[in-house]
Specification:
This protein is an alpha/beta fold. Helices cover 31% and strands 18% of the residues. It starts with a strand and ends in a 6-residue tail after the last helix. The relative contact order is 0.10.
């Protein structure tokens, strides 16, 4: 690579790290772990590098090694005296060793690496007094941005793995996860089930979160049911209360669950059967049933079919929210709206707000004879 001047944008270390981040993003686009590096000398960009172990079938083809190799070729010397290396992730032991052998003056990295970092996280080769070269090290430059690129990459890989493990029916749609990413107060661990007989291959998403146990060490259980045009997001205020385990399923066709393309897939009786079989799977024990106003019919069917599972049934008050983005998130286009056509696009209620949720949680615990404090 030829030597060139740095871009005008940014100042000091951040502008070079921004270039390294650009290399990391190119690595991600190629399916490699997104790490990028740039080599600088006397304020001039000497070389760039990004991760290529997969493409090159080479376990040593880390971003730093690629940048060092390219820089040595440009300078015509394997000694890189006076050079600085900027890399988006804390170097591993292999790369740290190569940096010391190349006699770099300085190494700057972005995000720490708690698993393999050799600049202080797992070990610190640069601080080893018995080595005959000293390289200055600085971490944390654009650390959040560097970490975000890595997190997004691995989140996408996990999503792909889940999709492959839980195939989508040919006559179904699955709302992309990024549609929900911007919604606040809904960072709950996702749970999915697909192998229930009643589901017929559709995938059901649900939230199952337990708050801290009450002083008696027990948890009351609350099942939250939404109605047509709603989804589990509108019960988010009920999640996490002390002494309360909260189960919030997204009915098939809504929220993060699979969405049949045809209206005929839906009936309240079928949704009841799915929920009852799902409850047999999650084994919650005695519960309080909380439902939105539009879910009263389904709640009655579920209660009638559940025997003595429910110790109380409560209607959730409307919090008065009108969250357009949250309501539209599961429906990127009209192809996703079969359930709305079949059961009605009712989106007038929104579940309890903070104050009402606290009251509901207290009533649920009292109905089961449990104490939170």
């Amino acid at each position: 690579m030829t030597t060139e001047s740095a871009p005008a944008a940014g100042t000091g270390d951040t502008r070079w790290m921004a270039l390294a981040l650009a290399e990391a993003r190119l690595a991600a686009e190629a399916g490699e772990v997104p790490v990028g590096a740039v080599l600088v000398k006397d304020g001039q960009l000497i070389a760039t590098g990004r991760n290529t172990p997969v493409a090159q079938h080479d376990p040593s083809a880390h971003a730093e090694i690629n940048a060092l190799r390219a820089g040595a070729a440009v300078l015509g010397n394997y000694r890189l005296d006076g050079c600085e290396l900027f890399v988006t992730l804390e170097p591993c032991a292999m790369c740290a060793g190569a940096m010391l052998h190349s006699r770099l003056t300085r190494v700057v990295f972005g995000a720490p690496d708690a698993k393999t970092g050799a600049a202080g996280s797992v070990l610190d080769l640069f601080a080893e007094p018995r080595l005959n070269h000293r390289t200055q090290v600085q971490g944390g430059v654009l650390a959040d941005e560097c970490a975000a690129v890595l997190q997004a990459f691995f989140q996408q890989r996990r999503s792909v793995a889940r999709e492959q493990a839980q195939p989508l029916r040919d006559d179904a749609l699955r709302t992309p996860a990024e549609r929900f990413a911007a919604l606040g107060d809904y960072a709950f661990a996702p749970h999915h089930v697909q192998d229930l007989a009643a589901l017929q291959g559709w995938r059901l998403h649900y939230v199952d979160e337990a708050g801290p146990p009450g002083k008696d060490g027990r948890l009351a259980c609350c099942l939250c049911l939404h109605g047509p045009g709603e989804w589990g997001y509108f019960f988010r205020h009920l999640v996490g209360f002390q002494g309360l385990r909260t189960l919030v399923p997204d009915l098939i066709g809504f929220g993060k669950s699979d969405k049949p393309k045809r209206d005929a897939a839906h009936s309240l009786e079928w949704h009841r059967d799915v929920l009852l079989e799902w409850l047999d799977r999650v084994q919650p024990g005695p519960m309080v049933l909380v439902h939105s106003a539009s879910a009263s019919g389904l709640a009655s069917l579920v209660r009638a079919g559940a025997g003595d599972r429910f110790v109380a049934v409560l209607a959730a008050p409307d919090a008065g929210e009108r969250i357009k983005d949250a309501w539209r998130a599961p429906y990127p286009d009209r192809g996703y709206e079969a359930a709305l056509r079949a059961l009605g696009p009712i989106a007038s209620s929104s579940g309890p707000g903070d104050v009402q949720a606290a009251v509901l949680a207290g009533v649920a615990r009292e109905a089961m004879g449990y104490s939170a404090s």
